[in-house]
Amino acid sequence: MLITLDDLRRFAVTHSLFKPTTLKRALHKMGFVQADPIRAPARAQDLILRNRVKDYRDGDLERLYANLDIEEDYFITYGFVTSSIRALMHPRSATSASTGDYQRWPAARLKQANLLLEFVRQRGQAHPRDVDNHFSHGKVKNYWGGTSNATTQLLDDMHYRGLLRVARREGGIRIYTAQRHESGPTDEAERRARIDALIDVLVRIYAPLPGRSLAFYLRRLRFAMPQWREELTSALQRAKQRLSHARTGPTLPHYATDDLMPLRGDEVDWYWPADEDARGHVAPDTVRFLAPFDPVVHDRTRFEILWGWVYRFEAYTPATKRKLGYYALPLLWRDGVIGWANLSVMNGKLKSELGYVASHAPRDRAFKRELEAELDRMRAFLGLES
After folding, report:
1. N or C: which end of the chain has fewer CB within 10 A?
2. Taking the domains of the chain in order of start, what are their residue ranges?
3. Nearest-CA neighbor of 25 among 78, 87, 82?
4. What tens digit of pLDDT does each residue of 282-324 get?
5. CA distance between the termini of the chain
6. What is the pTM of this model?
7. How far apart are CA 221 and CA 100, in angstroms?
8. What pLDDT, in 10s, does the model give residues 80-122?
9. Exposure string for 54-81, b = 16+ CB within 10 A, e = fewer
10. Measured between alpha carbons, how far is 243 from 265 in angstroms, rounded to an integer?
């Protein structure tokens, strides 16, 4: 198949940014939405959904969670998955939520888990504070090197292993309830079917994917299905045969910089769902502020190939070393990511600081008009005055 980077840029945008619909339909169309706790000016999951849900308001996902047939869980990272996708991933083997590595509970830990599970079952729903007050397990070192309540970490592991589910959130805190899963697949064909189905979900979310990114994302599926992590290599080969694919190159991307030297001259294999045509798409004349984890920009390798500059998420970068900003949102215009926006709320007003790869904004009137429209949409999303 003959395909160009222009085709792939337009496909990447139009495939992911479908016509806004209801929240439930958008979630089930996507299958998974990555979550992040930083609010600048809103959480990543809300920033992702605002571009795909009609009249979406900040916090709608948390408010309506119980009625959306979705679950909080790990996929390639932590976020929200549909219940049908979660069913494909469980039951999981004894693994660590932070690493996806095998980790059998010692007898004392297993006893704690059984007591905690019975406590949750008796209550129906349980707040981590109530669990900690009842058991007082003390403090432990967490994944980030700080300290966490031992009961909170145990709740996380029990949630990851499928013993608990998140029933709702209260002030941002997960409220847990007990859960049982059906038994896993009993034969090789059913197991492979589940693995392939999860890969197809992944590709549908992040397509089109360069070959190196497809392999990277499949490795991340060890968090979704640690019990089958040894089968991911063979699953990758099946996926490459099953998916639509084409090769591009050597073609220089727009705004090529020295940072992209390793990519120059490369021939790149691309993959996307078998039932879709990556050619012939037209991106609308629209400006969009995208979350750092939005599917359009999530894959940094793809980002650099398609848009020719280096975008980095700098929230955890020391302030003196930041180039774009604490929570810079990629700025999409038509099919080009041409810059970034740092947004904040001060005294009830939206404040915006914009930067551009070309050092200046596009000069046509259409861009200025659409930029103002996007700022208005952001104000409405945040509940601010125009």
Report:
1. C
2. 15-178, 287-382
3. 82
4. 999 999 999 999 999 999 999 999 999 999 999 999 999 999 9
5. 48
6. 0.91
7. 9
8. 999 999 999 999 875 554 444 546 778 888 888 899 999 999 9
9. eebbbbbbbeebeebebbbbbbbebbbb
10. 25
